[in-house]
Amino acid sequence: MEKLDEMISDVCFEKSTMDHDIIDQSSAPTCSGNSFVYSRTDSAFSESEAYSPVSPFRPTLSRFAPIRHNQTPSNLELEMMKERFSKLLLGEDMSGGGKGVSTAVTVSNAITNLYVSMFGQHQRLEPLFPPKKMMWKREMTCLLSVCDYIFEFVPSSQSLQNGESIEMMSIRPRSDIEINLPALIKLDALLIEILDSFQETEFWYDDEQGSISRNGSFAQRKEEKWWVPVPCVPAGGLSETAKKHLRQKRDSANQIHKAAMAINSSILSDLKIPHSYIASLPKSGRTSVGDTIYRHMISTSKFSPEYLVDNLNISSEHEALELADRIEASMFTWRQKACSTYPKLSWEVIREHMESDKNVLLAQRAEVLLLTLKQRFPELAQTALDTTKIQYNKDVGQAILESYSRVLEGLAFNIVGWIEDVLSVEMRNQQEEC
């Protein structure tokens, strides 16, 4: 039993430094459907129930030893990691019958659920609680350590002692991981640093809806985000130093959001399109997008995606997501038709040299329209194609990069929103004084 514990401990903590702080049960994270704002962070492809981290005070069931409530901190953390390690091997199928999801999806779900557990209830411009911060760093270090053992083979030459040179294959970190993972870790540290910078603030939050406290002014709580606390500022307004700090951190978080979004979009574009999605594509792209959009796209005049989006009168994000799914499906339908006309050429070559082809033109305009729609609705959830790609992905490295960039994108977006809420209260307070 002691040897088994040592083996699992070595596997799970090879890249992390063990902290012996016990997380108080009252601060144990809980997962709520209304607990976090950014919708793209959702990920649920497990056939089992939604995952939630086990509190260190709840020992896991073991067939080798009885439950003990007087375990030391190191043993409690080891029990937590043993459960995570087991779920990874079982593919979240706790029956052990081999019906679980792939390892890539399991790791993706683990990162997503860890983010929800650590930041789901965090809705204010304030530092993350130290136990949660340590747990986030420790758990992410463990999950990201998988990338240290993902390599690619490259040809190289080696000189022998007699002067001869031989060709051989050497290994190196996979290029996509080597480029993107250090950048994501840096973005993660910057976001934590932004939250830490709001240790002492001139503003505060009021959890009571529709009340004014401490002689301050407050932001009107939005009905669609009723769970978000209300920011308040002093009656005399914020100082210039505080306002400058808020603007600087907003700009930094906005740049981080763009960087994480770019990495996530790049990883998603590299994921293979599942055959199930290809089989579900409509036979006619025109039928999918509708006659109104199709007539505008096929028009010989200058195509303006902004004008088209403005005239569609989209009233909700649900309508925007539904439209995005239909546009994306039509885009791939037209791509398939173009590729079937030139079967020996790739889509990249066809797009570059066959611009006069009708299907190529429609596919390109659909791609531009889809991008414009996503820019107009930055909180838009993942499209059906992105969701299917993640669900059927088998590449563990890509799964880690995609989920890590997605949760950082969501955290950065939320931070920008929280800062803008405070600045809007300050602006309204100044207008009322005038």
Attribute tags:
globular; 434 residues; two-stranded antiparallel sheet; three-stranded antiparallel beta sheet
Give a structural overview.
With 434 residues, this protein is mainly alpha-helical. The protein contains 15 helices and five strands. The strands form two sheets. It has a three-stranded antiparallel β-sheet with strand order 3-5-4. The longest helix is centred in the last third of the chain and has 38 residues. The chain starts with a helix and ends with a helix.
Task: Summarize, please.
This protein is mainly alpha-helical and 434 residues long.
Major β-sheet profile: 3 strands, antiparallel
- Helicity range of the residues? 40-55%
Shape: globular
What Rg, in angstroms, do the CA atoms define?
26 Å
Report the average pLDDT across residues: 79
Number of H- or I-type helical stretches: 15
SSE topology:
Layout: H1 2-12, H2 73-90, H3 103-119, H4 130-144, E1 151-159, E2 165-173, H5 175-196, E3 204-206, E4 216-218, E5 230-234, H6 240-270, H7 275-279, H8 285-289, H9 291-298, H10 305-311, H11 317-341, H12 347-353, H13 358-376, H14 384-392, H15 396-433
Antiparallel strand pairs: 1-2, 3-5, 4-5
Helix pairs in contact: 1-2, 3-4, 3-15, 5-6, 5-15, 6-15, 10-13, 11-13
